[in-house]
Design brief:
- It is a single chain.
- Helix 5 packs across helix 6.
- The protein contains 6 helices and no strands.
- Helix content is 52%, strand content 0%.
- By secondary structure, the protein is an all-alpha fold.
- The protein is elongated, with a radius of gyration of 23 Å.
């Protein structure tokens, strides 16, 4: 009986150690909990504090000029933040992924051209 308890506890210890060591491989595969509530910022200053800005998408000029708008689109902010958390990418990459997803929904290719076979362009 003691041999069984020792074997099971040793196996559990080895398994826990292996899971801890290789957590970088299996942890991203777990779904992120959706029950956590994070309040979306409602101004450009809040957007900057949330990390929704970068060198190529600078919101500080909006603050400097005294822009009175409420900030970025709430649905877009929520989706970009979700992409940043689940895929562990930066703001620029998440914004690119979000834009390509929106393009695909509207039947537009990643290069920005419509996928409509009847589309004719004179340029």
């Amino acid at each position: 009986m003691a041999y069984m308890i020792y074997s099971i506890s040793f196996f559990a210890l080895v398994l826990a150690t292996a899971l801890f060591i290789f957590r970088a491989r299996w942890l991203p595969l777990l779904p992120a909990p959706q029950y956590l509530y994070s309040r979306l910022p409602s101004s450009f200053a809040g957007d900057i504090e949330s990390g929704l800005t970068s060198g190529s998408f600078d919101l500080s000029s909006n603050i400097m000029s005294g822009d009175s708008r409420q900030g970025l689109d709430d649905a877009g902010k929520k989706e970009v933040q979700r992409i940043m958390k689940t895929r562990r990418v930066g703001f620029d990459e998440a914004r690119r992924i979000y834009t390509e997803q929106r393009f695909a929904k509207n039947d537009i290719g990643p290069d920005g051209r419509p996928r409509d076979p009847k589309f004719v362009s004179f340029s």
